## 1
Amino acid sequence: MQDLDKIPGWFFGANAPKGYFTRFDQLFSEAPNGKCFLLKGGPGTGKSTMLKKIASVLMEKGLSTEVFYCSADPGSLDAVVTSDGKFVAVDATLPHAAEPKYPGAYEKTLDLSDCWNEKNLREHKKEIASLFDSNRRLHEEARRYLSAAANLLEEAGRLGAESLFFGKTENAALKICAREIGKKDKKRGTEKQRFLSAVTESGVVFMNRTPEILCERIFAFEDETGAASRIFMNTVRKYALENGFDVITCKCPLFPSEKTEHIFIPSLKLGFITSNKRHSADIKVKRTIHSSRFYDPKKYSRHKIRIRFALRLASSLIGEAALCMKEAKSLHDELEYFYIKEMDFSLVEEKTAKILDLI
């Protein structure tokens, strides 16, 4: 099996304050020969193993491939796609359930429930139902912690914005863009959205290897409040798209609809990442941009204690959310035990072979 660490890896979704958030809609391109496989099945039924085999075959065939990991279990795959979006295989069960939009024409559902012994599973229905319910409650508890953390981070950002030199921040971004990006054509570039980090059972996990795979030049923007980095990244994104460059933007998992944290321009092998104490990037960068020069020191000093308090408490709440997810993962492992022993994995292998034949 091919080494998946050699291809870009993302998180499929984020355990966000308002519930699980995913951008499945960003993965599939309804091209004439496009294929999308929706995998249905319980925990431990072989979906992740199937996805890893599919990714390996795509790589062997020389197709540009991306893999998407599960934020609840970073060692497990949730999706495999070709970068052009013409081939997608995705775990379409809760919490990222998906149904076919054009069944048969583009999407095909593969149900693994006919690979298990339902009679034996029903003999343990009370234990299984209890584990599922407890798992869901823990994830809901984690989201409440994350919601509180997001409110505090938003407050820190608001306080930071009150002392921010907006024009100076924007001009610094434009200067770097002119030098590092330049101009391509007047046709607007396209955008993909991904998650490079997520809150997991181990805390905030950052996919360090992905920027290193995609980029030869990486600029890290260090900013604790998020006020300066928001302006900087928005400026870079707008400049790149308006000058005809395709980009990959990565949203903050706590603000998945609003805040851009990282930007990659694959054709230039160029990346811009946000770094802070919550997700410090352990990668080699061309240049680190310190946000302190974009804040008015006198104004910032008035809010420093409140900002530090908000950030410290937010980090603590994120830690509590991670503990909830860790406990939920242990329950998920117990659920896998019930399903694994009742699975006929030879049937799963047959279904996997049918997908591989269609690649």
## 2
Amino acid sequence: MHVPDGFIDAPTSAVTGAVAAGALAVSLRGARRELDERTAPLAGLVAAFIFAVQMLNFPVAAGTSGHLLGGALAAILVGPYTGVLCVSVVLLMQGILFADGGLTALGVNITDMAIVTTVVSYAVFRLLVKVLPRGRRTVTAASFAAALLSVPAAAVAFTLIYAVGGTTDVSIGKVATAMIGVHVLIGLGEAAITALTVGAVIAVRPDLVHGARGLQQRLKLRVNGELVDAPTARPVPAAGAAGSHRKLWITGLVASLVLAGFVSFYASANPDGLEKVAHDKGIDRKVEKHASSDSPLAGYGVKDVSDARLSGGLAGVVGVGVTVVAGSAVFWAVRRRRTQDVSPVSTGV
């Protein structure tokens, strides 16, 4: 659903850019409360994993494919604020390095694919977790439903943005019907990937899954006549937790590299939902050349490498590497700022 340059006019793109900038500022502040020494490295890995899985277009209908958006997955694994940042890092890397998603449309893409999907999915997820029986299966089931609804929600958001600032005269009703219809199908793939991934992480390290926190009732102690939460011990010894965390991170990175560097070659070559609708309805009549079209990685291939399998694989590996480094740098900085904010102030004697 990456919107290219030329679909949305300049004023609307500027407004969505301002919305995206404001949301990112809020998310940077909110992520300080979500990230700690264990989850900050995981957040960088989540961004890289989303990049890798987005390269795996899957067929959803005749001549149409879909791919993961990632907002639900990121929000449930590392928190909604950090989730917005994860998807935004991916979109930025894709736009600059791979010419995927217009640079003038970056605000549109962040608003649609990062903010809307994360907010909608996490709201649905929290509602379901509250009303359903507490447990790991509930988290997985809620993840499926939240991801499923987040994709058509993004399609609705794009339709509304296009209704305000679309550059072609196309019936909004036809655009809405086509976008929502195909993205409901794509949502099924999104839901399956999200539920499987969340379930896999919960199986090995439930303490690292933001959406699984609080599944067990915390022990209460009475202090001075008031009930307070007792300190929570780690589920495994510190040394074991560190080793388990490191193993999870390495496993996730290897999986991302394999998906982007090898499995992506077998992804569907059909246009994704937005591309298909844009072509069929004439939305793409004023599409503009991407500013990064001359990038050596444009189109998810390495320039001057003639072998398609090798070219795409190398591009995928580079993309995962750049994304995990960029994401980790962002989340390390956020975590460091949090540490500074909570550091005790020396009062002197």
## 3
Amino acid sequence: MTNFIPTKYQLISLCCGEEFADKNWELQCPHLHQPSLIRAGYESTRFELHPEYAGIYKFAAWLPVERMLEGSGSPITFKSEGLAGLLGLKQLYITFNGYWPERGAFMKSGTFKECEAFSVCSRTNSSKGVMVVASAGNTARAFARVCSQNKIPLLLSVPMDNIQALWFDSPLDPCVKIIACEKGGDYFDAIHLSNLAVELDGFYPEGGARNVARRDGMGTTVLSAVTTIGKIPDYYFQAIGSGTGAIAAWEANLRFLADGRFGSNKMKLMLSQNAPFLPIKEAWDLRSPTILPMDDDLARKQIEEINAKVLSNRKPPYGIKGGLFDALSDAGGAILAATNKEAEKASALFLQHEGNDVEPAAAVAVASLIKAVKEKLIEQDSVVMLNITGGGIEKFKQENSVCYATPEKIFALNEDPQEIKRQIAKLFR
């Protein structure tokens, strides 16, 4: 393996602007002035690829990482012909995250969540102990694969309704343990379990959107697109659950503006959700700086109806300083909605015209691009980046044998918190 030189960076508080060292898995401003994200400030404002590094680490100049792990893939970007021809777009670029060996894509979990998993797990200055991750499915699969392959202790918390998302090409190492909330629970309930776990000695939170490594790992999709195209796109299309990927795209865009060699524009964020679960769209359409109040039972019913279960976050980083509301307010854009039927049709069109399958969330993004073209929300000669956040899963399963993981513990939605913590602690003894 090529000798790896750790990336030099400082952390920046978005609430007060203070810069500080990344000493102990920092997730927030040390002064706690207000709810705020922190951001990585890299020593080099000029982006350079590192082709000598494997997989995602070719983007290490703008990743807060101190080591390379085995087995990473990276986003790949190509100019569309098939889908572009169908839609009449002259400069449609597809950034594909998943499994597509013929195009050089080797993410074996089939999702861009691998980008964040490898980046997070390479940020090695963490507390010793067990990392805790809550997920609606794709993130869990990516973190489980990365941690299992690299022997990193991990506790995953997932909804039992999404357990089929935990498929792998080989059994997981015992360092990875899975817990689940019972059927009828959702991502919000899985987060509840993870919050209890991090109260235990020896467990620490991965951090979600607050973890700079997660966001900058996801931002490699934009690094791939801009370095391939040679300029910052005009429009950025992605389906969102939490919106963390869109925040990451905006932050990468800002870094390219500071670089100065790739244009001076901000990509309009053309984001999408799977109807009828539309909390971010409903808030943004009213320009509300916070997510609107949501009935728990109605939210669970809506989540049950959507095919793209990974887009089911009820507590997204929307109103926090540096969050999605700020990103949309600064860059501009829109949030669109796609029904299951529209997404299924879009998925079939992508397979027909581009030659690979896409997972349900990515199909929502394709459907929204189709809708944006029909409604003339974008110009036909504009530079468009379509972030396919997951794909090639069916292709991978056809070419490889897979096995499914099962949870060590399944907890009732009304289970006693102390009993939950007692059972979790026993898993790693």
## 4
Amino acid sequence: MAFWTADPNRLQHRAALVSFFGSMLEYYDFFIYGTAAALIFPRVFFVNVDPSTASLLALLTFGIGYIARPVGAVILGHFGDRIGRKTVLVFTLVLMGGSTLAIGLLPDARMIGSAAPIALTLLRLLQGLSAAGEQSGSNSLTLEHSTGGRRAFFTSWTLTGTQAGAILATLVFIPIAALPDDQLLSWGWRIPFLLSFVVLVVAYLVRRTMPETPAFEEAKERHALARFPIVTLLRDYWKDVLRVIVCAQIATVSTVTAVFALGYATTKFGVPKSTMLWAGVAANATALVAQPLWALLADRIGRKPVFIGGVLGCAMLIFPYFVAVTSASPAAILAATILMSGLVYTAPNAIWPSFYAEMFETRVRYSGTAIGTQLGFLGAGFTPVISQSLVGDGAQGWIPVAIFIAIACAVSAAAAATARETHAVGIDELGKGDRTDDGLGRLVTS
């Protein structure tokens, strides 16, 4: 075809690599906010309230970033399905890098009073807008460049990049967190945010040279693009959007371990910050290996068994995970975190980029995955603050939190069980099921 002359085999590897680095660099920015919200912001931006309220407010700003995500998903999904995946993905990087840099330059509450937490919240909203389009765009880009029967493998590299971003963010914060309090709270915490300028430049150079996907270019040449993708999406794919929203509740596992447990263990049980941070690094390093392997398995046996198995595994492991965290034993914390986050959670995490994206056809794929995941991720975004409100006193105070996470996992698995298995379906047939186009751009049951 005239619009596609490059070697598809090379491009699928390049697309996976570009998505990996772009996601890694963008989510470095996103994760340093979560770490700072748990460890730093209560003492920098919320200084006129008691420590418990300050922690709650700081975690609330973390969750507020997720409020912006559905709005960003509608806007960025529309343009991603109208003008292309690549252009929108470059924009998301610039928006994330710029807002994160601004946080690093933001005066604290002692300098500008209540304006500081307000400005922090607004910048967090911009981070949320950017993140709404990042993963869905990268997933669409990689999926549509993939050939043969390895779509889950190549698409999983987007989420593997997210894990790498978490490692990078944590490694930057470990020496920062070790600074004396006066240095940490005055200038030290700003360093990870200011480094986002480097992140922004590198990510832009990596991503801007990637060509548009063949599936999108073909749809464009055939004049098959939806004029208003969200209208087509909600008319023909509302069940799939709802399914993705519920499936995405598995993400509560990520934020309860990466954000809530970090603050809970260090403030309530005296666990050193370095112990929790290094356990997170070890788990994410394990995920770098585990996720591609889970994806390869999903390309062989299907998306659903791997996704559902991992989700149910998380529902069971959340209880021993909290037992380990509250034991304050470094060895137990390390082992539980690697098992939970590095091995079992990585099964659904590796599969959802292909599992969700394959529910939709090309002309609404970006919008469908963006809107479905970001509405679903609202639950994950507010999991730390919900957990903070649920946690009780004493050594067993974590039990209501664990029950909440287990229920979220159960409903995620139930929703996934209703999905169509797509690992053996050709890319041109994705999102159609037993439906055909009626000639007016609408899908009808055959």
